[in-house]
Amino acid sequence: MIFTRKKQLVGLDIGSSYVKVVELKNGGKGKRHQLLNVGIEPVPSQSIVEGGIMDSFAVSEAIRNLFERLGVKNTKVAIAVSGNGVIIKKITLPKMSMEELSDQIRFEAEQYIPFEIDEVNIDYEVVDSSEEDQMDVVLVAAKKDVISDYTSVVVQAGLEPVVVDVAAFALQNAYEYNYNIDQDLITALVNIGASSTNINILLGNKSLFWRDLSVGGSLYTQNIQKELGIDFESAEKLKKGESVEGITFDSVIPVIDQTSQELIGELLKTFEFFKATSQFATIDRIVLSGGSAKVHGLDKMVEDKSGIRVDVFNPFESIFVDESTFDPQFINDISTMVSISVGLSLRKEM
């Protein structure tokens, strides 16, 4: 049918510590999206290691439990992948038609992708063709076995994976929807997950640089466990600002601060690499998201160490959230955790 609306998808972010779900309702032309469902579900420890799914049953059960608990009826989902199995490159090619590019892209990918070309799924987008004889193309390659592992657990949970996105781009999607973008400012979107950190540096809404760091919020938990000799659950509570029996939160602040310095060191090295390999000498703003974005003092420390303005991302800034349905404190507590889920939920069925 010509005028059939494309169906909204549920944003499902499968992380190594939690699966996160966001379901939105399209408000119609000129109206804000509305939050219908949001929630998180813990994933058993070691079920996902360095982006690889080790226990597909445990992950699919976590997904199924979350959908049942929230009462989500829509089974069509958008998911994201990241890490070593995903390669993003911006390449410059002679200007050509889209038909010619479609024929040429596989050959070009072989020059830039460090995997066998038959082992990856390839996608691409022309991001700039203003030059008379050249065009910039973003090339994305994701290993087929990584995509298969993630789509398989979704299917095991009784759902249909309609879209597989890249985490850094899903984050950008959420950012662009929620904020007015100054086209002259360079912004570093930094999503700190449990086991990895996704970085996407933008000029306005144009991506310039992408990188996934193999360090994340679990480093805080590990360092607290090591320092105090306590179990994982207690260390997680302390990381989040809670006290546990016999241990006050104040007593772990030195460990948290030291860990923040380690994480910031990796960020600053990445920023320096970006500046050294691009025409841009500065970054104007850092936007933090992810489960560890609100770790005690992290935003202030990043700002002090980098000399760059730092904001904590609110993925519901421009989304209507009915306070009679959703507890504002709950939304505030989980907001940074579900940033990628929000970006995924803004996608529509193709």
Query: What's the multimeric state?
Result: single chain
Structural class call reads alpha/beta
Give the rounded overall mean pLDDT. 91
Number of helices: 10
List how many beta strands DSSP finds. Answer: 15
Helix content: 25-40%
Give the end-to-end Cα distance, rounded to a whole number of Å. 14 Å
Determine the strand fraction and express it as a percent band. Answer: 25-35%
The largest β sheet comes out as: 5 strands, mixed
String of helices and strands: EEEEEHEEHEEHEHEEEHHHEHEHH
> Major sheet: order of its strands?
3-2-1-6-10
Low-confidence stretches: 1-5
Radius of gyration: 20 Å
Shape: globular
Name the descriptors.
28% strand; 10 helices; 350 residues; alpha/beta; 15 strands
Short note summarizing the structure:
It contains ten helices and 15 strands. It is an alpha/beta fold and 350 residues long. The chain has helices spanning 56-70, 98-112, 144-156, 167-178, 218-228, 232-239, 253-276, 298-306, 328-334, 339-345; strands at residues 10-14, 18-25, 34-42, 48-49, 52-53, 76-81, 86-94, 120-128, 134-143, 160-166, 186-192, 197-203, 206-213, 285-289, 309-312.
